[in-house]
């Protein structure tokens, strides 16, 4: 006790004689105590176990395309004398798109018909002279060859007429399907066109949303599954689609991966709001359950446990999980509705964990 009084008196005397040093020491002690003082712990976020519908999905991007598109071109070259459509027009099946100058084709057909008529007359005359011969006047080998040669010439003339007629038909371009003209390589008449000149007609009644599904996920995808798509021009609208076709053969994507194209029909197209080439994001629903217990995915530890808030603290429980989405997981057993589970288990201090 005497030693403590001596030390205390020494401290008092030192403080009187060294006021500045004493003030610095005191201030330093206050700062250290403030830093080391344990702060008030932030509340740990919890969420009640609730019943809801849950679905397992594949997130994917896609674009609108048409199942029925016709790329049309003339089979022959020539001068375009009639153009019945322009880009953006709606056309009907078998409607004429354009006509080439038929004058040369018509003249060639007329010449072929004249040659045919002439050869037919020669053939008939030769046949008449020789078909009624008696046995004694039987055809010689030379006469037979003349008849055969005439037959060949006649056949050739017939083919020439047929080819000339085909050329006349090829000078008229028609569309086999109804739809919108989405490509038109020539916009005016009076110019020469070639077989590379293209007109494209797209059938608006067969629009589809195409998605490239990675080979790792294609085993989960089936025809008839629902797809929720949000198209880029309409971010506030969700289109409910149904998968109707899956490619049997894979292809290599632009990034070098292997994927299968999946198709979902776009039912209806009011005011032509859906257009070929529009991109969007989609969720393919591969599995779905209704009215099941769910908790946040983040609540589950690596060993399938969660912390439940109780009056004594936080109790760790083992659970069995089922279907899971990106954010929530189905709870099959281990929890009850309205249990309070910790959203982030790593924030639970060990001293607050009950048993």
Q: How would you write the strand order of the largest sheet?
A: 2-11-15-13-12-16
Structural class label: alpha+beta
Total strands: the figure is 22
- Unreliable stretches covering 5 or more consecutive residues: none
Our count of helices gives 4
Q: Quick one: overall form?
A: elongated
- The fraction of residues in strands falls at 35-45%
Mean pLDDT: 80
Terminal Cα span: 47 Å
The helix fraction, in percent, is 25-40%
Radius of gyration equals: 44 Å
Main β sheet profile: 6 strands, antiparallel, barrel
What is the count of distinct domains?
Answer: 4
Helix-strand topology string: HHEEEEEEHHEEEEEEEEEEEEEEEE
Please provide a written account of the structure:
This protein has 355 residues and is an alpha+beta fold. The protein folds into four domains: 1-37; 46-52 and 290-347, conserved putative lor/sdh protein from methanococcus maripaludis s2 fold; 58-66 and 202-289, Efflux pump adaptor protein, beta barrel domain (Elongation Factor Tu (Ef-tu), domain 3); 72-192, no CATH class. Helices cover 26% and strands 37% of the residues. It is built from four helices and 22 strands. Strands 2-11-15-13-12-16 form a six-stranded antiparallel β-barrel. Strands 3-10-8-5 form a four-stranded antiparallel β-sheet, with no helix packed on it. The protein has a four-stranded antiparallel β-sheet with strand order 7-6-4-9. Helix 1 (2-17) packs across helix 2 (19-36) and helix 3 runs antiparallel to helix 4. The longest helix has 30 residues, at 141-170. The relative contact order is 0.18. The mean pLDDT is 80.
């Amino acid at each position: 006790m005497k030693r403590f009084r001596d030390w205390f008196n020494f401290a008092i005397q030192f403080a009187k004689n060294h006021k500045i040093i004493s003030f610095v020491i005191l201030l330093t002690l206050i700062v250290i105590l403030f830093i080391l003082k344990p702060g008030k712990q932030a509340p740990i976020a919890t969420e009640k176990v609730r019943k809801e519908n849950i679905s397992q999905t594949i997130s994917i991007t896609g674009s609108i395309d048409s199942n029925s598109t016709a790329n049309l071109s003339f089979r022959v070259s020539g001068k375009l004398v009639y153009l019945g459509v322009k880009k953006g027009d709606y056309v009907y099946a078998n409607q004429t798109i354009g006509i080439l100058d038929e004058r040369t084709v018509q003249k060639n057909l007329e010449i072929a018909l004249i040659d045919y008529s002439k050869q037919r007359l020669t053939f008939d005359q030769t046949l008449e002279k020789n078909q009624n011969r008696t046995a004694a006047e039987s055809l010689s080998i030379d006469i037979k060859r003349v008849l055969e040669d005439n037959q060949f010439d006649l056949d050739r003339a017939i083919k020439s007429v047929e080819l000339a007629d085909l050329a006349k038909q090829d000078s008229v371009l028609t569309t086999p399907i109804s739809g919108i003209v989405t490509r038109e390589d020539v916009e005016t008449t009076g110019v020469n066109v070639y077989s590379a000149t293209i007109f494209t007609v797209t059938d608006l009644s067969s629009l589809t949303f195409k998605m490239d599904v990675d080979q790792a996920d294609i085993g989960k995808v089936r025809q008839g599954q629902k797809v929720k798509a949000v198209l880029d021009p309409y971010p506030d609208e969700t289109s409910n689609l149904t998968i109707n076709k899956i490619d049997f053969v894979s292809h290599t994507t632009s990034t070098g991966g292997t994927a299968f194209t999946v198709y979902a029909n776009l039912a209806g197209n009011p005011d032509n709001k859906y257009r070929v080439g529009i991109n969007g994001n989609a969720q393919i629903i591969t599995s779905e359950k209704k009215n099941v217990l769910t908790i946040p995915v983040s609540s589950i530890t690596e060993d399938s446990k969660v912390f439940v808030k109780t009056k004594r603290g936080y109790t760790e429980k083992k659970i069995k999980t089922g279907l899971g989405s990106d954010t929530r997981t189905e709870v099959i057993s281990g929890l009850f509705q309205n249990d309070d589970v910790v959203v982030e288990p790593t924030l639970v201090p060990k001293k607050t964990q009950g048993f």
